[in-house]
Amino acid sequence: MRPPVIRHLCAPAAARRPFRILIVEDERRLALSLAGGLTAEGYAVDVVHDGLEGLRRAGESPYDLLLLDIMLPGMNGYRVCSALRAAGHDVPILMLTAKDGEYDEAEGLDTGADDYLTKPFSYVVLVARVKALLRRRGRDGGAPPVLRLGGLTVDTAARRVFVAGEEIVLTAKEFAVLEHLATRAGEVVSKADVLEHVWDFAYDGDPNIVEVYVSALRRKLGAGLIRTVRGAGYRLERPEPAERPEAAR
After folding, report:
1. Distance CA 66, CA 99 (A)
2. What does the DSSP 8-state code read for residue 75?
3. Helix, strand, coil: what percent of the chain each, to 5?
4. Strands 188-189 and 233-236
5. With contact defined as beta carbons under 8 Å apart, do 165 and 182 qualify?
6. Is the pTM of this model over 0.70?
7. What is the pLDDT of residues 9-38, one digit of tens each?
8. Most buried in the list 152, 174, 187, 238, measured by CB within 10 Å?
9. For residue 184, what are the β-bridge partners?
């Protein structure tokens, strides 16, 4: 008897057919968290927890993207990827693994994977990789890779930030926080929402870490860029084109 497939469908209000993503991941908490987040982004998501079932599903159904763990019961991710490529399937494959190192990445790419992401990873990074792979496939109609908000420019593909035309150097985590706020500019974003999208799903540290990174962004980009909405979260304002923070001069 085949194991059940857990299916997550996006909201029915979507005007076009949603991208279909298959997650093959045996860590159930991670798989369901990924599915919930990607569903909220507007994707239609199926989840299976076994390599053999993942191979069957990916071979029989027209998915737009496959998130494939390496360490799987039944058949590991390397073999699943190799089998799909040998059968002529060109679905983009993003491999997920707890393993690390250049050898592991090379092995994953040699089997035909399009990209590789090592755990733990942030949700923002995952979504960026997903959108990049879908753009290459020619179907992604998501947010533009460059966000322009008054004098602030956030290049999500090149991971670069400019204020009034001058580049501001950010750390990877600072950029991830800014990118998440920028995609929802003008809205109030809760601290919990930032944690969920920027930090690893398993993060159980001090939630005030968000305040640390928001403070760092204010120092680099200007104190008035990110407003604190007491008791609710943060709102990224749209800076005037002529604004330039003292720190950037």
Report:
1. 19
2. S
3. 35, 20, 40
4. antiparallel
5. no
6. no
7. 444 433 445 788 999 999 999 999 999 999
8. 152
9. none
